[in-house]
Amino acid sequence: MQFSINRQAFIKALNDVSRAISSRTTIPILTNIKIVLTQEELILTGSNSDISIETRIEQSDTGAQLIIKQPGGITLLATFFSNIVKNLPADDMTLSVDGVRASITSGASDFTINGQDVHNYPQLPEMDDVQSLSVSAAQLVDIISQTKISASTQESRPILTGIHLALNGNDVKAVTTDSHRLSQRIVTLTGTDAHVKADVIMPAKSFNELQSLLEGQDRVEIKLAANQAVFDLGNTTFYSRLLEGNYPETDRLIPTESTTQLTIEASALLGAINRASLLSHESRNNVVQLTLENGVVTLIGTSQEVGRVQEELVTKSVEGENLEISFNPDYVRDALRVFNGKAVDIKFTSNLRPFTLTPAGETDDKQLQLITPVRTF
């Protein structure tokens, strides 16, 4: 195998597929990057067995300046190879392969490194009974960014580490919960006439890596099978395994009525919580307290070791009964960031029941964050 290529174009492709490569894997060859050269294109693949990313650089891509001299393939240790390419001196580079030894030349620099046979690398998953749809990349980013915060990071309940997607026609409902908080986003897809009916759970970690690849994309082709999802981003294809099992019924967790409601700018509350957190993070339980009394809303952060902060909040409106409630400030801070500084309605039923945050004036729960309070007595 031998080819030459613009080094920056090659680095971008390396970075994309490296998102799927982990140093912690039970399959040693998956710490490598797979490089295959055909008569028309260069194909790079990275995988950690949960997700796989394949990107293609075509000879017709003038920016890449790909010159194919001899087709072939090899796998090379991903981190080591990437570091070499990023530190080469010239704007272009040449990769030549003889058996399982690769020679990388650029300017006056010449590296020779050992690789492994490309045929030992696992094949990308094959899919049966596929359902397909095309979605806006912007809508997909919206769904991911507004729900991933509540996915669990504890492997003790693997199903909660995923984003639950229920697709019905052009409507998508995405939900995550770690049993302490919940995020929900309901979107009607635009620009598609697909009528897919599916119920899948995709690891939040996979969605996190996918979100990084969606920048600059217009539309994404999605293929769903029983245990696999594939996202086609033009020259890059993203594969993710799906989680098996039944996701908890979350609709029953969302309160249908409230006794107290306040409307406030998300940015104003976020700033106050950041200040209260300076104290709560010094405390062992990391809790802040919100009090609503006769229309006055106060946020309090306390640490027995350090001190106390109290701040009266400027709200747009306060309605209902007086209330005193405690919560984890980090959960509320994550939830507020989703609303991009806009005004939010916060609805409470009691100091021990979950409360919700929604865009001000909206009542359809299409964009909802739910937080479980902390019992302090």
Automatic annotation (TrEMBL):
Query: Which GO CC terms are listed, alphabetically?
Result: cytoplasm; DNA polymerase III complex
The annotated subunit structure for this chain is: Forms a ring-shaped head-to-tail homodimer around DNA.
Q: Domain of life here?
A: Bacteria
Supply the CDD domains for this chain. Answer: beta_clamp
Q: Sorted alphabetically, which keywords does the UniProt record give?
A: Cytoplasm, DNA replication, DNA-binding, DNA-directed DNA polymerase, Nucleotidyltransferase, Transferase
Q: Which GO terms describe its molecular function?
A: 3'-5' exonuclease activity; DNA binding; DNA-directed DNA polymerase activity
Give all residue intervals belonging to the DNA polymerase III beta sliding clamp C-terminal domain.
Answer: 252-370
What region holds the DNA polymerase III beta sliding clamp N-terminal domain?
A: 1-125
Domain DNA polymerase III beta sliding clamp central span(s) in chain numbering: 136-249
Can you name this protein?
A: Beta sliding clamp
The UniProt similarity line reads: Belongs to the beta sliding clamp family.
What SUPFAM superfamilies would the database entry show? Answer: DNA clamp
Q: Which GO terms describe its biological process?
A: DNA strand elongation involved in DNA replication
Localization terms from the record: Cytoplasm
Q: What is this protein's function?
A: Confers DNA tethering and processivity to DNA polymerases and other proteins. Acts as a clamp, forming a ring around DNA (a reaction catalyzed by the clamp-loading complex) which diffuses in an ATP-independent manner freely and bidirectionally along dsDNA. Initially characterized for its ability to contact the catalytic subunit of DNA polymerase III (Pol III), a complex, multichain enzyme responsible for most of the replicative synthesis in bacteria; Pol III exhibits 3'-5' exonuclease proofreading activity.
Originating organism? Leuconostoc gelidum subsp. gelidum
Q: Name one Pfam family in it.
A: DNA_pol3_beta
